[in-house]
Amino acid sequence: MKKILIVGGVAGGASTAARMRRMDESAEIIMFERGEYISFANCGLPYYIGGAIEERSALLVQTPEGMKERFNIDVRVQNEVLSIDREKKTISVNDIANNRKYDESYDVLVLSPGSTPLKPPIPGIDSPNIFTLWNIPDVDRIKSYVDHTKPQKAVVIGGGFIGLEMAENLHDRGMEVSVVEMADQVMAPVDFEMAQIVHRHMKQKKVNLYLGDGVQSFEYHNGLTKVKLQSGKIVEADIVMLSIGVRPQSELAKAAGLEINGRGGIVVSDTLVTSDPSIYAIGDAVEVVDFIGGQKTMIPLAGPANKQGRICADNIAGKNVSYKGTQGTSVAKVFDLTVSSTGVNEKSLKRDGKVYGKDYYTTIIHPNSHAGYYPGAIPMTLKLIFGMDGKVLGAQNVGYDGVEKRIDVIATAIRFGGTVYDLTELELAYAPPYSSAKDPVNMAGFVGENILKGITKPFQWHEFENIDSDVIILDVRTPLEREMGYIENSINIPVDDLRERMVELDKSKKIVVYCAVGIRGYAAQRILEQNGFDKVYNLMGGYTTYSVVFC
Amino acid sequence: MKKILIVGGVAGGASTAARMRRMDESAEIIMFERGEYISFANCGLPYYIGGAIEERSALLVQTPEGMKERFNIDVRVQNEVLSIDREKKTISVNDIANNRKYDESYDVLVLSPGSTPLKPPIPGIDSPNIFTLWNIPDVDRIKSYVDHTKPQKAVVIGGGFIGLEMAENLHDRGMEVSVVEMADQVMAPVDFEMAQIVHRHMKQKKVNLYLGDGVQSFEYHNGLTKVKLQSGKIVEADIVMLSIGVRPQSELAKAAGLEINGRGGIVVSDTLVTSDPSIYAIGDAVEVVDFIGGQKTMIPLAGPANKQGRICADNIAGKNVSYKGTQGTSVAKVFDLTVSSTGVNEKSLKRDGKVYGKDYYTTIIHPNSHAGYYPGAIPMTLKLIFGMDGKVLGAQNVGYDGVEKRIDVIATAIRFGGTVYDLTELELAYAPPYSSAKDPVNMAGFVGENILKGITKPFQWHEFENIDSDVIILDVRTPLEREMGYIENSINIPVDDLRERMVELDKSKKIVVYCAVGIRGYAAQRILEQNGFDKVYNLMGGYTTYSVVFC
Ligand SMILES: Cc1cc2nc3c(=O)[nH]c(=O)nc-3n(C[C@H](O)[C@H](O)[C@H](O)COP(=O)(O)OP(=O)(O)OC[C@H]3O[C@@H](n4cnc5c(N)ncnc54)[C@H](O)[C@@H]3O)c2cc1C
Ligand SMILES: Cc1cc2nc3c(=O)[nH]c(=O)nc-3n(C[C@H](O)[C@H](O)[C@H](O)COP(=O)(O)OP(=O)(O)OC[C@H]3O[C@@H](n4cnc5c(N)ncnc54)[C@H](O)[C@@H]3O)c2cc1C
Ligand SMILES: CC(C)(COP(=O)(O)OP(=O)(O)OC[C@H]1O[C@@H](n2cnc3c(N)ncnc32)[C@H](O)[C@@H]1OP(=O)(O)O)[C@@H](O)C(=O)NCCC(=O)NCCS
Ligand SMILES: CC(C)(COP(=O)(O)OP(=O)(O)OC[C@H]1O[C@@H](n2cnc3c(N)ncnc32)[C@H](O)[C@@H]1OP(=O)(O)O)[C@@H](O)C(=O)NCCC(=O)NCCS
Predict the structure, then answer these.
(1) What is the pLDDT of residues B35-80, one digit of tens each?
(2) Residue of B307, B331, B439 with shortest CB distance to A431
(3) Closest Cα of chain A to B534: distance in Å?
(4) Closest CA in chain B for residue A371
């Protein structure tokens, strides 16, 4: 009879335990959890504070009793694992409730200790109205503080997905919310022009955004915290949410001499074994392979944690299953917007020294969520990133409806090593309430294909930053559309007049064509190019993307 | 300068014309359309009758003038192509408005004539209140009839997706609607147990369903048609919609001696060339390769027609692009339900002589649309069909939210030749409002993998049809759930009591375990199996699927 100990009783740990039992009815399985709760819905916590999730009990997906009855797991909550003796194959445990230390032996040990919110040593960070959100006691504390002190003003530090979910939920509770973010954008997984859509939406929701600014200090007095920013600005808060990132809880592993990477991540093999063959590790705490680039990285998400738990159990049960890497597919609801992405973003490619137009290309399109003639169609903003061989490297999508559907499709294509050519061929479900005969994913594929085959020359918004004054910027929209705003120094010839009026244009010059989203710009560019204009570029995303960045 | 003639001005034809112009600014392109309108939204027609689409103009995606201005296409509406002279490379055309016949020469001819609704010679079929729906004049006729005569009772003949969309839209107009369908189920692309969910939903909406019954005759008198069924039943109708299928409009091709298949489909190569190298054909009228099985078939859908148009234009422009086949991904809104599918269904596998458990397996699961603890989660019914090697052959999904998203993901996996093992690994976007950490697609993959690896033995609802009286049927739900209904002759031991109470069961007997959806049944089955019970099966889809079929 195998004796399996699991450290951590939530996403990775509980999933391992459940699958383990299904694979091996006779094993002895003990799951240790420092906190009072197991199997809770980390991801649901913000919505309990906001009220969308009304019942606290809904957050508890499983209980120790349930795990005992269903899976015959010996669940020990309020039992913190203090150390591992790898020689003796034992762990030492602190039974917190009974204030008792004891040892437990193992054949196999599984670590799923998760991560923990960063709390840097900023002056005043321990003020009583500054909170982090990670588990049930956290959510109880925050909810009780909100319910009892009825804060009016909230400041969220950090514009990641948890920060923004908190911003929305505190806003739903009637607070005036400010978000402070060190980078020039929220939602790090998406690129700047995509984040700008989020910024605009949040401003519409009357959230104050402090971008490119960090916290210098917190000054707490009598229920109010003055958040002093590095810019000198001061923002007042009745409640502060700290959400600036997480670090792996790998102290236990480290103390036991297991291999740890520079960021504190536990190093594991593709079968999720640590440097000690009797010890597995999974979840937020482990280093994973980036599915796209193959390099090592850390991606703390629930989907990977759950799947790793299942794989880990299978391997302990004698199967030989490998975890092939994480591609970072994610989605977040930010007020009415859905923000979703998969694979690499352009920022990270640039950081790695890759050059746009040499190593990779991007497209931005604004297709409707479903057929335009059926009520409720709303445009999304879909960005696709792909290599010179067409291989899809990543995608980002921001909008209201059908957003994460397209990311899921592209994430699936990425999993199979798919190219933009593959995207053009995908046969996706179409009826007017759901999509268009050419789905947005097909459309992104078409545009990508056109770029790679030289049928269109793309021009990106960031290329305006050092554009030659000699370049002709040609607006091919209608005069009516132009009245609503246009790119400075552009001239206007509507696409449908272009065949007659192209004589007005200088063939020797570089021309950047734009329309509202890129479709007419593309048509215009094709007309010009086949009429002897050989330096014609089409602005990707058109005025829609331009204006969200620059206006 | 190439001269390209296109027959048919809607989905396939107009797409070809637009792409063709973008590829070749100098070609002469003439598009012939028999009707008065081009580029209309066929798929939107039912919703204009029902009122969801309010403006008739919304149905006209492009106009002849628009196609002229944007793409310099010579669009000739009310011009019917009568014949093709392949030797001379000319077509003869009837200019209907001017009652004038003329010839036009071509270098390349493209046929996208579409299909037309079947209208079999049933007595009375030409009664003035019997309609088919295919184009704008049809929709005008129907809408005007509905607006003016205010029918109370509607009968829809045919339970395909267009028939059901019409049923919904006539119901939305306040009519009492009956649907008559020859087969024992509506929505042929899905299997019986899936269609049963649709039947139940339609009955809840007070639609009368006549299944397994055909029309013998129509008797029209004074605005009222008596629809006489083969069973002898008579259904009265103020309006009848005929929606029993379509046939390809390949007369032109046939008369020109082009190769035609047994079902009237124009035979084309993978580059969409007919048996005459100067003539291409696309859309509903052509025979396509079934992407899964490789056999020839006919799949009249807008997505394939549009994509074929683009590929056809590329080939005319000298590229060499092949159309790799159609997998039949589709979706329909049926009242509040979404019904979606991709790939092959079980019916067609059986028709081809394939045997369940020998050639293929299936799963049925009922996962939530998103995390159960976040408001609004609703279960879907997801059926997966896969080969013994794990290759995904098809999927069907019926439910309310996030239904076609999962089909799109599986359709994408199918396109890459994916297996159930691949589905377990897909990294899909997860946050509580959108999905679960293990997405329904992952979950279907898990169950499929468990079947193939022998971790679970599935039992399908249809196996109840000749079940041995000796088999123990074991209900592992709680007594409370059992009160709401159970399978006859089943005994009840809740899963959480099973470890203690399995002594009550006879190890020598075959046991079929069931719970509400299959998850606890699976847990129970694993417990029994590892305790020496070696003939334990888990009912796929649990009591939920059982009851929708049998109750
Ligand atoms: C507010 C919030 C929202 C989120 N939203 C999403 C989302 O929408 N989508 C998404 O994909 N991910 C989301 N996540 C992330 C997701 O919850 C984590 O990626 C996932 O829970 C990681 O699983 P894990 O098993 O590694 O760690 P956890 O689930 O955090 O579990 C680790 C457990 O180990 C315990 N532990 C640690 N050390 C010890 C020890 N020495 N002894 C005993 N017990 C110990 C901890 O107490 C903890 O309970 C969210 C997280 C939070 C906090
Ligand atoms: C009510 C309805 C709802 C639908 N809903 C959906 C849906 O939700 N999803 C989906 O994927 N598909 C749907 N379809 C099917 C989809 O519309 C067709 O698959 C698609 O339009 C086929 O394109 P096509 O170019 O082959 O034919 P069509 O779009 O039908 O165009 C063919 C045109 O050719 C013209 N023509 C034929 N012969 C001649 C001739 N000799 N001379 C001149 N002109 C000629 C016809 O008048 C016709 O206008 C629906 C169809 C209908 C009618
Ligand atoms: C509650 C918890 C312990 C359940 O773990 P689990 O039993 O592995 O997961 P599920 O209840 O989803 O069941 C999945 C299993 O049922 C099987 N299954 C699902 N539907 C089925 C069906 N209809 N028929 C048969 N089997 C089915 C799956 O194959 C899978 O079994 P496998 O892994 O052996 O293949 C774990 O998910 C958990 O702790 N969750 C909460 C914490 C968390 O994830 N937080 C982060 C996100 S908020
Ligand atoms: C209206 C119609 C003629 C348009 O054809 P189209 O111009 O090929 O299609 P779209 O307007 O969707 O534009 C797609 C083109 O724009 C390009 N494009 C789309 N978004 C773009 C963007 N943001 N930037 C640059 N190019 C873009 C695509 O690459 C594609 O061009 P390509 O085929 O040369 O690669 C045709 O779709 C039609 O007749 N539709 C109605 C009939 C019908 O389909 N009925 C059945 C369904 S109801």
Answers:
(1) 999 999 999 999 999 999 999 999 999 999 999 999 999 999 999 9
(2) B331
(3) 14
(4) B44
Written as six digits, the tokens of A493 are 């010839």
The contacts of residue B362 (CB under 8 Å, 6+ apart) are B346, B356, B383, B384, B385, B386, B458, B460, B540
Distance CA A38, CA B488 (A): 38
What's the N-to-C CA distance of chain B in angstroms?
67
Instruction: Indicate the pairing of strand A215-221 with strand A224-229.
Output: antiparallel
Q: What is the DSSP string of A371-430?
A: -TTSTT--B-EEEEEEETT-BEEEEEEEESSSHHHHHHHHHHHHHTT-BHHHHHH-----
Cβ atoms of A334 and A164 within 8 Å: the answer is yes
Whether pLDDT at A1 is above 90:
no
Three-state secondary structure readout of A107-121: CEEEECCCEEECCCC
* Nearest partner of B268 among B247, B243, B242, B286, judged by Cα: B286
* Per-residue pLDDT tens digits for A153-211: 999 999 999 999 999 999 999 999 999 999 999 999 999 999 999 999 999 999 999 99
Residues in contact with B114: Cβ distance below 8 Å, sequence separation at least 6, in sequence order:
B8, B10, B11, B12, B248, B249, B283, B284, B285, B300, B305
pLDDT tens for each residue of A481-519: 999 999 999 999 999 999 999 999 999 999 999 999 999
Pocket of ligand 3 (CB under 6 A): A 10-11, 14-15, 18-19, 22, 39, 41-43, 61-62, 302, 306, 310; B 365, 437-438, 443, 446-447, 450, 517-519, 522, 538
Question: Measured between alpha carbons, how far is B3 from A382 in angstroms, rounded to an integer?
Answer: 37
The C-alpha atoms of residue A237 and residue A129 are separated, in whole angstroms, by 9
B395 contacts A272 by C-beta, under 8 angstroms: no
Size of interface A-B (CB pairs under 8 A): 234
In this prediction, residue B198 carries a pLDDT of 98
Q: B85 with B32: CB under 8 angstroms?
A: no
Rg (CA), chain A: 26
How many CB atoms are closer than 10 A to CB A148?
8
A272 in Cβ contact with A280 (< 8 Å) = yes
For residues A549 and A138, give the distance between their C-alpha atoms in angstroms, rounded to a whole number: 37
Rounded Cα distance between B180 and B186, Å, is: 9
What is the phi/psi pair of residue A193, to 5°?
-65, -25
Distance, CA of B164 to CA of A534 (rounded, Å): 52
Closest CA to A241 of A175, A158, A168: A158
Question: What length is written for chain B?
Answer: 551
Task: Please count the other Cβ atoms lying within 10 Å of the Cβ belonging to residue A251.
Answer: 15
Rounded to a whole number of angstroms, the distance between the first and last alpha carbons of chain A is 67
**Which residues contact residue A517 at a Cβ distance below 8 angstroms, ignoring those fewer than 6 apart?**
A365, A366, A379, A541, A542, A543, A544
Q: Is B551 a catalytic residue?
A: no
Distance CA B220, CA B126 (A): 9
Cβ distance B122 to B216 under 8 Å? yes
